[in-house]
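Explain this protein:
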Amino acid sequence: MVNYQEIISKATDARKNAYCPYSGFSVGACLVCSDGKMYTGCNVENASYGETVCAERVAFLKAVSDGKRGFCAIAIVGGKGEITDFTYPCGSCRQVLSELADSGLEIVLFNGSEHKICTLGQLFPNSFGSKDIK
């Protein structure tokens, strides 16, 4: 069972490490593996905007590079300055998440006062993946 408060807290802490001098939009994420291990990530911007890496992808890449497969939840916390709204994964992150996790992955969003949960399948229905490469 996922402790939502714990992963929200870890994502909030990871957000403090964001490198976002261009947008000022800092994001933190905390990914939970099926074995309970957690990986955090923050966004890292680049003057060449296309080279920016989002917090969700950082967390997933750290986990995968550590040999992990099987994920059950990811918390995402972000915004400019104080957290006031829910921050959803961008399209690139949704594609990476769908490559590495199943549609049941819980996505936990926090707006500074409350959280809500959706699944990857709800957020990214009909995604393109290995099933489509024949």
Summary: The mean pLDDT is 96.
